[in-house]
Amino acid sequence: MGVIRDLCHKYTVLTEDEISTIEALAPFLQTIADLTDADIFIDCPCRNADSIVVAEAKPSGVPSSYQKSVVGLLAKAENEPAVARTSRLGVSTKQMKAVTQEDRRTIQSVEPIRNGEHIIGVLIQERHIDEKFFKNQRIRSAQRSYEAISGAFTRVMPENNWLTECIDEALLIVDDAGIITFRNTLAKELYQKLGYIDDVLGQPYDNVFLVNTDPAGEGSRMEVEVGRYVLDVKYIPLGAPNMAFVLIIRDLTWRREQEKALILKSVAVKEMHHRVKNNLQTIASLLRLQTRRTGSQETRQVLEESMNRIIAIASTHELLAQSGMDEIMLSEVIRNIKSNVLRYCAEPHTKVAVVLEGDDFSVDSDVGTSVALIVSELLHNAMKYAFAPGSTGVVRIVMTKGELYSRIQVIDDGQGFNVQDASKPRLGLSIVQTLVEDKLFGSLEIESGSSGTQVTFDFKNRITIAGDVT
Q1: Which overall architecture, per CATH, does domain 2-128 show?
Q2: Quick one: which of 15, 53, 242, 299 has the most CB atoms within 10 Å?
Q3: Each residue's pLDDT tens digit, 258-304
Q4: pLDDT per residue over 378-425, tens digit each?
Q5: Which residues pair with 93 in a beta bridge?
Q6: What is the spatial distance between Cα 413 and Cα 399, in angstroms, rounded to a whole number?
Q7: Whether the domain at 2-128 and the domain at 256-460 fall into the same CATH topology
Q8: Which CATH number is correct for 256-460, 3.30.565.10, 3.40.980.10, 3.30.420.360, 3.90.930.12?
Q9: What is the Cα–Cα distance from 365 to 293, expressed in whole angstroms?
Q10: Domain covering 132-251 assigned CATH 3.40.5.10 in the classification
């Protein structure tokens, strides 16, 4: 008896009185096993959705389905659906398939053990799968219910019962006596997947219902988990002669699995972008340390420019990590770039306002990363070269969304430069040109004069790996 109490304390939330009730039943298991020539068990519900085997008895006159003791082992809901159903609903379950802890196929019938309204355990009768025995059982069951079934069939769409085979839901009709008098093929297949050996046609509804709901009331709808399946169950009262109600069941398992897969994918995408961002920030920090140690102004400038480009990419991955999607709002990217450039690149005593205007729209991660680099370069050049020290000015970033291509303009009212002057190397503009043409499949236009500079580039809104619009 100590084993039962120890297991209940370890795995369940049963009270001392409830454990004593289970202990009081255990001595009778062997007698029941010998009378029924079946394995008998008591399982108690665990703190999670499974059950724990706390007592067992093997029949003396016939071989057991088990080679070893299973006391102390878990009964998983997906392997023993009858145990899960009775534990959840508090009703008897007859003749459902099960998989033992030794990976053998058996048939279970399960009765609830109650303490008032509380289900504290289940009593399980278990036998080998004997196809010949169950075939005879099905024949006798079919003979007993033949008249009721055939009568209902003639009343329910006698010439058009093909219609019930065309719907995507399992359909059951229950008569006034609580017997299933009609089911379509989807219902038959669904209950077979749930573990029922016999066709549900002709069975008492009490042995197959999935939700504790009063079908005699108004129509109700519930979502329920049965083993590894997720089902949407709907009751509709009929009130017709000898047709009490109809049960409609839709299998939502695949849909829920896809939803879980999307959530997992979102988490994975977030983690990926988060790690990329961290790695890029580490590289930027190393470059910053190197910048402080070098005595060469030219080297310091090159390192700072490289650091700013890395920060631009990192900021995009940071936003992607927050969203968990492979798309990002373009205005968020550019606001981050604006903040970083003003923090690291603005010349002392220069009062320049950066204004974001126009449309806001989402782009994929490849477009967002390239746009971040381009705007960072253009904004960095404007802050560094367009305005004299101590002067004031405005840099406008204008976004225009198109159906296939979109456009961004970076416009300043600074001192301008000679676009045609090839004597000065312009690595930043060369990078911009390459990104626009090779990565964004767009075009770049630069206009500059005494009243300022306007750089315009367009880009495809969606880019696949091959460079095609999606």
Answers
A1: 2-Layer Sandwich (3.30)
A2: 53
A3: 877 776 666 666 666 667 767 777 777 777 777 777 777 778 777 77
A4: 888 888 888 877 788 899 999 998 877 899 999 999 888 888 775 565
A5: 110
A6: 18
A7: no
A8: 3.30.565.10
A9: 35
A10: no
Instruction: Report the alpha-carbon distance of residue 331 to residue 399 in Å, rounded.
Output: 8
The three-state DSSP-derived secondary structure of 440-468 is CCCCEEEEEECCEEEEEEEEECCCCCCCC
Cβ neighbours, 10 Å, residue 274: 15
Across the range 5-13, mean pLDDT stands at 91
d(Cα 206, Cα 226) in Å, to the nearest integer? 16
Q: Where are the domains of the chain?
A: 2-128, 132-251, 256-460
State how far the Cα of 359 lies from the Cα of 407, in Å rounded to an integer: 10
CA dist 29 and 113 (Å) reads 14
The Cβ of residue 428 has, within 10 Å, a number of other Cβ atoms equal to: 19
Residue 61 is given by DSSP the state: S
pLDDT of residue 397: 93
Give the pair of three-digit tokens for residue 98.
Answer: 């099960």
Q: Are 262 and 269 in contact (CB under 8 A)?
A: no
- Residue-wise pLDDT tens digits, 291-347: 777 777 778 777 776 777 777 777 766 766 665 566 778 888 888 888 877 776 666
pLDDT digits (tens, 9 = 90+) for 94-148: 888 898 888 888 999 999 998 888 899 999 999 887 644 444 444 444 444 433 4
Query: What is the dihedral angle through the alpha carbons of 206, 212, 217, 219, rounded to the nearest 10 degrees?
Result: -100
According to the model, what pLDDT value does residue 120 have? Answer: 93
Residues 6+ away with beta carbon under 8 Å from 209: 89, 91, 247
- 15-21: Cβ within 8 A, 24+ apart: 17/115, 18/115, 18/118, 18/120, 21/113, 21/115, 21/120
Close Cβ partners of 225 (under 8 Å, ≥ 6 residues apart): 231
pLDDT at residue number 123? 93
CB 70 within 8 A of CB 172: no
Residue with tokens 């090159």: 302
What gap in Å lies between CA 144 and CA 42, rounded to an integer? Answer: 32
Instruction: Tell me how many helices (H) and strands (E) the chain has.
Output: 11, 18
